[in-house]
Amino acid sequence: MFATPFRDSLAIQTRVIAALFMREIITRFGRHNIGFLWLFVEPMTFTLGIAGLWYITRSTHGHHVPIVEFALTGYSTVLLWRNCATRCVGGLTPNLSLLFHRNVKPIDVFLARILLEVAGATCSFYLLAIVFHVTGLSELPQHAGRVIAAWLLTTYLSTGLGVFVGAVSELSEMVERVWHTVTYLLFPFSGAVFMVDWLPPAARDAVLLLPWVHGVEMLRSGFLGEGYTWHYSVAYMVTVSSFLFLAGLLVLRLVHRRVEAG
Amino acid sequence: MIQLDGVTKIYPARGGRKVVLDDVNFVLERGQKIGILGPNGAGKSTLIRLLAGVEQPTSGAIRRHMSLSWPLAFGGAFQSSLTGLDNLRFISRVYGCDESKMRAFVDEFSGLGRYLREPIKVYSSGMRARLAFALSIAVEFDCFLIDEVIAVGDQQFQERCREELFVKRGDRSMILVSHDPNLIRQHCTLAAVLNAGKLTVCDSVDEAWARYCGQPVKETAAGDGADTTTQPGE
């Protein structure tokens, strides 16, 4: 292979991902009505709906927690990783012809999609946090730094998960079919509707095997601060995310060797 | 320079593996033009996909020391719900070209006018091809990959394509894959014959032509059809 210096490669890849990102935005949201604003309005309405529902019904799941913060942190994180993964599943095959442009690599197709989901979920999360605070529905986070760190970690996890699930789904169509079921089944275990401390110790250990639960816990601890017992490990999240990301890259290499463009 | 070194492509197929390209070797220096002749099912489309980098060889390597275009006038990478202009922007971003210069060229050359602002899905196939051709020569490549074509649009447009490609860009390299020997005779300095996955580089275009026409190629292709013709895209 003709060796391109790392700095040039990086510049090319950034350019390619930016191009794919813009293409994806226009393709998905078009130029009609509010256009790309849907990017974050869509996840916002979802979180807003759930938070509103819980607020009105005062359903705190039998525990005393500030319900708006609880819903905001829970739903925003689950939207982030779930949407990243779902957008990547089967995301390469319909875009194979893009690979005719030599600088476009399979990983770029996934990264552009992930970037778009991250942008949407992030705008939605921070905007809602501001709106809830301004309207007096929620307090400011106790530890703003921890909130940001938890969000970044979940973003990293979502990237790893997206690349991994997306790559594996190219190996077998079965993955694509099964993934949608899996996301539904995983929802109760997403950490959106419980705090780890509410669970019996045995269930706690089991649920903490799921990396995103650490993200929600950390995010909530940033919002609600002391007075609760939190269970999360940054090291565990980083390890699992890195593993998923690297495994995804390896599978993608294999996929690129086997790919058959029409 | 573009170098193919022992390039072999094997596809999984029902009842075993199917060798579509078998140890293909050639070197193309800057400025050289190679024509590759081959009957249907010889492996031409597979070779194009490998050269373009969409697919990777099962074994062997392709070394590119100059920029190689996507197959000329190929419109498959267009997003049909986007406008011609959106697709132009995408190409200019991916290749790091100046957008306004590119736009001026495509506008002038394709003659699409206000249609550039319409989604590609409303284009006729001729309009689509004109946009695709204009875009592929708007990017300054060192080497053009040409899969048949040049029979794009009406007589006048074809003439302009030929002018842009072979006269104005006569100093560039080209890889022209075709089953029409006349085209290759006209434009290429080197020639090779691809048959049943094997590539033979000839000393002259005439020799390649003789080799291609002299042997009963059609019959050979039909005979080998079972293991060479079912590749995708053919």
UniProtKB/TrEMBL annotation, chain A:
<feature type="transmembrane region" description="Helical">
    <location>
        <begin position="148"/>
        <end position="169"/>
    </location>
</feature>
<dbReference type="InterPro" id="IPR000412">
    <property type="entry name" value="ABC_2_transport"/>
</dbReference>
<feature type="transmembrane region" description="Helical">
    <location>
        <begin position="110"/>
        <end position="136"/>
    </location>
</feature>
<keyword id="KW-0472">Membrane</keyword>
<feature type="transmembrane region" description="Helical">
    <location>
        <begin position="234"/>
        <end position="255"/>
    </location>
</feature>
<keyword id="KW-0812">Transmembrane</keyword>
<feature type="transmembrane region" description="Helical">
    <location>
        <begin position="181"/>
        <end position="199"/>
    </location>
</feature>
<dbReference type="Pfam" id="PF01061">
    <property type="entry name" value="ABC2_membrane"/>
</dbReference>
<protein>
    <submittedName>
        <fullName>Capsular polysaccharide transport system permease protein</fullName>
    </submittedName>
</protein>
<feature type="transmembrane region" description="Helical">
    <location>
        <begin position="36"/>
        <end position="56"/>
    </location>
</feature>
<comment type="similarity">
    <text>Belongs to the ABC-2 integral membrane protein family.</text>
</comment>
<dbReference type="GO" id="GO:0015920">
    <property type="term" value="P:lipopolysaccharide transport"/>
</dbReference>
<dbReference type="InterPro" id="IPR013525">
    <property type="entry name" value="ABC2_TM"/>
</dbReference>
<keyword id="KW-1003">Cell membrane</keyword>
<feature type="domain" description="ABC-2 type transporter transmembrane">
    <location>
        <begin position="17"/>
        <end position="223"/>
    </location>
</feature>
<keyword id="KW-0813">Transport</keyword>
<keyword id="KW-0625">Polysaccharide transport</keyword>
<keyword id="KW-0762">Sugar transport</keyword>
<keyword id="KW-1133">Transmembrane helix</keyword>
<dbReference type="GO" id="GO:0140359">
    <property type="term" value="F:ABC-type transporter activity"/>
</dbReference>
<dbReference type="GO" id="GO:0015774">
    <property type="term" value="P:polysaccharide transport"/>
</dbReference>
<dbReference type="GO" id="GO:0043190">
    <property type="term" value="C:ATP-binding cassette (ABC) transporter complex"/>
</dbReference>
